[in-house]
Design brief:
The complex is a heterodimer of chains A (472) and B (279).
Chain A (H helix, E strand, L loop, with lengths): L7 H6 L10 H4 L12 H10 L7 H5 L6 H9 L3 H11 L3 H7 L6 H4 L11 H14 L15 E5 L3 H12 L3 E5 L8 H4 L8 H13 L3 E3 L10 H7 L2 E4 L5 E2 L12 E3 H8 L19 E5 L3 H12 L4 E5 L11 H9 L3 E3 L2 E8 L5 E14 L5 E5 L5 E4 L2 E4 L3 E2 L2 H4 L26 E3 L2 H4 L4 H23 L1
Parallel strand pairs in A: 1-2, 1-4, 2-3, 4-16, 6-14, 7-8, 7-14, 8-9
Antiparallel strand pairs in A: 5-15, 10-11, 11-12, 11-13
Chain B lengths: L1 E10 L2 E7 L1 H6 L5 E5 L6 E5 L2 E3 L4 E7 L3 H7 L6 E2 L1 E6 L11 E6 L2 H14 L4 E7 L8 H5 L3 E6 L6 E2 L2 H11 L4 E5 L2 H14 L2 E5 L15 E4 L2 E4 H4 L2 E3 L5 H8 L3 H17 L4
Helix pairs in contact in B: 5-6
Classes of the chains: A alpha/beta (472), B alpha/beta (279).
The structure holds flavin-adenine dinucleotide (FAD) (2 copies) and FE2/S2 (inorganic) cluster.
Chain lengths: 472, 279
C-alpha cells in the first residue's frame, strides 16, 4: 500500500468512518456477526484521523495501557505487520477486546478528537489489526522463551486465565490451564453471543496460546476434580481466574415456573450448546413469543437480542432505572434498538405469573421513580405505590447480576475472601496464600473483559517475580 | 476422550458402560455424578457414578434410555470414546457411621443407590436394600447389592421376589424397627411415596434429585430445586437432600419443561435411524 502524506488540515477534515454492519431487519433473524469489520480503505482513512498526540490521553483510558497511537500509526502507514506486533505485545486478545470493550467510556472517551467531533474509532481499528493478524499468523510467531523449569497452574480459561497463561508462557514457565467446561473461553464462549463475538475468534486466540506452549485441560473442576491444595502441592504457583459465574435470582414469587431462566442458562444453552441450531444440536431452549429480560447491562442486551433472533415477536428489556444509568455498551443498546428490542424503563418486577400448568404467562411489575443518588453515584429507583401492572410474556430471563461461585473457595477455607465471597487480592494479584494469585471477576465481582485481562497480565508479572525470589 | 471398555445390558432399557476416567475413578465418593457430553453437538447430561475400578481407571455408568441423549450413548460400542466427562460433581452422600440403613432403589435408581450402600458397607454399617422393577427382567444390581447386605426384591407383577411396590416392603421393614436412616433413589413418584411413608415413622430420609442440568458447576441455576422453602442448586448443593423437605411437585413439573423438544428429538432420531442417517 502506498502511503500518502496528508496535511494536518486534511487529517482533521476526515470524518469518523462508519462500521459496515448487517442490515438490522435481516440480522435480527440470524446469529452471524453484526459488525462486518473495516475494509482496508476505511481502516486507512480512520487511522489517518489520529493526530498522534505527544501525551496520548487514550492510553490512560485503557485499563491495560495499550500503546494506541503507535499501532494506529503503523496502520496509517500501511504496515500491518508492525501494527500487529505492537498491538499483540500490549494486549493478548485484541480480536476480543476490539469487539467487546466499552471503548466509549475508556480509550475513546479520552481521545482529543472527541472534544470537537467524534473520537478516533480505536476499537474498530484494534479489531481490524487483530483480524489481519489471524490471517497472517505465520509472520508473527515468536520464538519460545528459554524454559525456566517452573510449573504454574491457571484455574479457568476466561479472559483473566488466558491472558495470565499467555504472559507466563512468554516468561518460559510451563503452564497448565484447568477449565471446568468442555471448551475454553469463559464468558466469551458461554455468555457473549456469536453475533457479537464469533466463537471462531476465541478459538483462534486460544490456538495462539496453545502454539505458545500453554496446555489446556478441559472438564476439570477445581474444588471437585482437584482441590486447590492439591494444585499447590504440584505447581510452583497458581493463578485463579474462575470468574463470577453464580447467577442471582430476584427472589420474587413464581420464579421457578417453566420459562424463567437465568441469563447464564439462557445464553449457555444458545451459545455454548448451540440450542439455536436445535434439533441439529441436541440441547433445546424454549422459544418465546414475548420475552421479558430483566436488567440493563450487556448480559441483558445479549439475552434480549438472542430472544429476538430465536423468533420472539416481542423482546423487551425491563430496567428499573433510566436509559442513562444502563451499564451496557452504547453500541449494543444502539444495535438492540435498531433490531426492534423494546425498552421499559423505570419498571421493576414484583411477581412472575403462571397458568395452572406452571408455564409463565406474565410479569407483574411496578413503576419506579429515581430518588437520591446511591453509593455508586447512580440515582436509586424507588417504587411508585399503586402503579402495578401486568406485562404479558411467556419467557422471563433474569439478567440482574452474578456473584462469586463458592465451589472452589469452599474447598480451601484458608483462602481469604471478602464478605461478598470474592477472593481478596492485592494490586499485584497476590492472595492471602503464598504462591496463589487471583484476578478477573472472582476478585472484582462482575466487571469487564479488559479488566480481567489486565489482572491476568499483572498477576503473571508478579508470579514471575515471586518465582524468581523463590529460587534466589 | 474416554474409551468405553465394556458394555452390558442390564434390563430391557438399562445399559451399563464402563468408561476410562482415571482421576474420577480414584477420588469419587458415593453420591457423586459426572456430566458427560458424548460428542460435539451432543447435550451435557448428568449420570451417577454407579461403581468404579480405580485400578483399571474406569467408572461405571448405568444408563436408562429415555430420550435422544441416553439412546445415543447406549448405542456406542466398546472401543469407541466419549468426548467429555467432567467430575466428580455434587456433594458426597452423608453416610452414617453407626446404626442400620435402608436403601431403596426404583428402576435405574437402584444403580444410584449402589455406591451409597457400598460406602455404608465400608463403614461397617449394616445395610438392607429394597429394590424394584416392573417384572423380573427389569430388576438390576441385585447381585452387587447382595454382596453388601440383605436384599428384598419387589416386582409390580410378582414375576420375581415380592409382588408390589418398594414402599410396601419398606413399610414392613420400618414397622419391624431398627432403621436409623433411609436412602431412596428412583422416579419422582417413588421418592415422594417413600418420603411420605418414612415421615410417618419419623425416620430421616435422603433422596437423590435428578433435575435437568447443564453445566453442573452452579453456573446456570437450571437445576434449582426447592428444599424446605429455600432454592438450592442440585448440582452443587446436592444432588442429595432431606427428602422430607423436598418440593417434589416442583421437581416433577420442571422436569417436563422440554417435553415437546424431547419428543421431536426422538422422532427425528428414530426417523434418521430408519432411513439410515444415524451412524
Ligand atoms: C452475557 C455477558 C456479556 C458480557 N459482555 C461484555 C462486554 O461486552 N464487554 C466486556 O468488557 N465485558 C462483558 N461481560 C463481562 C465479561 O465477560 C467478564 O467480566 C469477563 O469474562 C471476566 O473474565 P474472567 O476471566 O474473570 O472470568 P470468566 O470469563 O467468567 O471465566 C471463568 C472461567 O473459569 C471457569 N471456572 C469456573 N469455576 C471453575 C473451577 N472451579 N475450576 C475450573 N474452571 C472453573 C469457567 O468455566 C470459565 O470458563 C459480559 C458478561 C456476560 C455474562
Ligand atoms: C444428578 C443426576 C444423576 C443422574 N444419574 C442417572 C443415572 O445414573 N442413570 C440414568 O439413566 N439417568 C440418570 N440421571 C437422569 C439422566 O440425566 C436423564 O435421564 C438424561 O439427561 C435424559 O436425557 P435424554 O436426552 O436421553 O432424555 P430427554 O429426551 O431429555 O428426556 C426424556 C425424559 O426424561 C426426563 N428427563 C430429562 N432430563 C432429565 C434429567 N436430567 N433427569 C431425569 N429425567 C430427565 C424428561 O422429563 C423426559 O420425560 C441423572 C440425573 C441427575 C440430575
Ligand atoms: S446445572 Fe447449572 S447450576 Fe446446576
Amino acid at each position: 500500500m502506498i502511503q500518502m502524506k496528508i496535511s494536518p488540515k486534511e487529517r482533521l477534515a476526515i470524518q469518523r468512518q462508519l462500521m459496515p454492519e448487517q442490515d438490522a431487519l435481516e440480522r435480527a433473524h440470524n446469529f452471524a456477526e453484526v459488525n462486518l469489520g473495516f475494509p482496508e480503505q476505511l481502516a486507512l482513512l480512520e487511522a489517518q484521523r489520529c493526530i498522534q498526540c505527544k501525551d496520548p490521553k487514550c492510553v490512560n483510558g485503557c485499563p491495560v495501557r495499550v500503546n494506541i497511537p503507535r499501532f494506529i500509526k503503523f496502520v496509517a502507514e500501511g504496515n500491518l505487520q508492525e501494527a500487529a506486533r505492537s498491538l499483540l505485545g500490549d494486549n493478548a486478545l485484541p480480536g476480543v477486546t476490539g469487539r467487546v470493550c466499552p471503548q466509549e467510556t475508556q480509550c475513546e472517551a479520552e481521545c482529543i478528537r472527541g472534544l470537537k467531533g467524534k473520537p478516533v474509532a480505536i476499537g474498530y481499528l484494534e479489531r481490524y489489526v487483530a483480524d489481519w493478524a489471524f490471517q497472517n499468523a505465520n509472520g508473527l510467531k515468536q520464538a519460545p522463551a528459554a524454559p525456566t523449569g517452573k510449573k504454574v497452574a491457571v484455574v479457568g480459561a476466561g479472559p483473566a486465565g488466558l491472558t495470565a497463561a499467555g504472559e507466563l508462557a512468554k516468561q518460559g514457565h510451563s503452564v497448565t490451564i484447568y477449565e471446568a467446561l468442555h471448551q475454553p473461553g469463559g464468558v466469551l464462549v458461554y455468555g457473549i453471543p456469536e453475533f457479537r463475538l464469533p466463537k471462531k475468534i476465541v478459538d483462534l486466540e486460544v490456538q495462539r496460546l496453545q502454539e505458545a506452549g500453554v496446555e489446556i485441560e478441559c472438564n476439570v473442576v477445581i474444588g471437585r476434580t482437584y482441590t486447590l491444595n492439591e494444585l499447590r502441592a504440584k505447581f510452583d504457583a497458581i493463578f485463579i481466574g474462575n470468574g463470577a459465574g453464580l447467577p442471582v435470582f430476584m427472589n420474587v414469587p413464581g420464579e421457578n415456573f417453566k420459562g424463567v431462566y437465568s441469563a447464564n442458562e439462557y445464553l449457555t444453552r444458545v451459545n455454548l450448546m448451540a440450542a439455536y441450531d436445535f434439533p441439529q444440536a441436541d440441547t433445546p431452549v424454549l422459544i418465546g413469543k414475548r420475552v421479558a429480560v430483566l436488567g440493563g447491562g450487556n448480559v441483558a442486551m445479549d439475552s434480549a437480542r438472542t430472544a429476538k433472533r430465536l423468533g420472539a415477536d416481542a423482546s423487551m428489556i425491563i430496567y428499573r432505572r433510566t436509559r442513562k444509568e444502563m451499564p451496557a455498551r452504547a453500541e449494543e443498546v444502539h444495535h438492540a434498538e435498531q433490531e426492534g428490542i423494546q425498552f421499559e424503563f423505570l419498571v421493576a418486577p414484583v411477581e412472575v405469573l403462571g397458568n395452572d400448568k406452571k408455564w409463565v404467562t406474565g410479569l407483574k411489575c411496578i413503576r419506579m421513580q429515581l430518588g437520591e443518588p446511591d453509593a455508586s453515584g447512580r440515582r436509586s429507583p424507588v417504587p411508585i405505590p399503586g402503579s402495578e401492572f401486568v406485562l404479558d410474556c411467556d419467557i422471563v430471563v433474569v439478567a440482574i447480576g452474578t456473584r462469586a461461585n463458592p465451589l472452589l473457595t469452599a474447598t480451601c477455607p484458608e483462602l481469604k475472601l471478602n464478605k461478598r465471597g470474592n477472593i481478596e487480592a492485592d494490586e499485584n494479584g497476590m492472595t492471602s496464600l503464598p504462591g496463589v494469585f487471583a484476578g478477573g471477576d472472582i476478585v472484582r465481582g462482575a466487571a469487564t473483559v479488559i479488566l480481567a485481562m489486565g489482572d491476568g497480565k499483572r498477576a503473571a508479572q508478579s508470579i514471575g517475580d515471586y518465582l524468581k525470589a523463590k529460587v534466589g | 476422550m474416554h474409551r468405553i471398555v465394556s458394555k452390558t445390558r442390564l434390563s430391557p432399557n438399562v445399559t451399563r458402560l464402563d468408561v476410562e476416567a482415571r482421576r474420577i475413578a480414584e477420588i469419587r465418593q458415593p453420591g457423586q455424578f459426572v456430566i458427560i457430553r458424548r460428542a460435539p453437538k451432543a447435550e451435557r447430561i448428568p449420570l451417577t457414578i454407579a461403581d468404579t475400578n480405580p485400578v483399571a481407571g474406569t467408572i461405571s455408568l448405568v444408563i436408562q434410555s429415555v430420550g435422544k441423549s441416553t439412546q445415543d450413548l447406549v448405542a456406542m460400542e466398546v472401543g469407541q470414546a466419549i468426548q467429555d466427562i467432567s467430575g466428580p460433581l455434587g456433594m458426597p452422600t452423608e453416610l452414617i457411621e453407626s446404626g442400620r440403613a435402608l436403601c431403596i432403589g426404583g428402576g435405574v435408581g437402584t444403580a444410584v443407590v449402589h455406591p451409597i450402600a457400598q460406602g455404608l458397607h465400608q463403614r461397617e454399617v449394616p445395610v438392607i436394600s429394597v429394590i424394584g422393577g416392573r417384572s423380573k427382567e427389569w430388576v438390576i444390581f441385585e447381585e452387587e447389592l447382595r454382596r453388601l447386605g440383605e436384599v428384598v426384591v419387589c416386582t409390580d407383577d410378582g414375576s420375581y421376589g415380592r409382588k408390589g411396590f418398594v414402599t410396601d416392603a419398606a413399610k414392613d421393614i420400618l414397622t419391624a424397627g431398627g432403621i436409623t436412616i433411609v436412602y431412596a433413589v428412583g422416579p419422582v413418584p417413588m421418592m415422594r411415596a417413600v418420603t411420605n411413608l418414612t415421615r410417618s415413622f419419623g425416620v430421616h430420609t435422603v433422596v437423590s434429585l435428578n433435575p435437568i442440568m447443564v453445566d453442573g458447576t452452579g453456573m446456570c441455576g437450571g437445576c434449582r430445586v426447592d428444599v424446605g422453602g429455600e432454592t438450592k442448586f442440585a448440582c452443587v448443593d446436592g444432588p442429595e437432600f432431606d427428602g422430607h423437605k423436598v418440593n417434589f411437585d416442583l421437581l416433577a413439573d420442571r422436569l417436563s419443561t422440554y417435553r415437546t423438544h424431547e419428543q421431536s428429538s426422538l422422532d427425528r432420531h428414530d426417523h434418521n435411524c430408519r432411513i439410515g442417517l444415524g451412524k
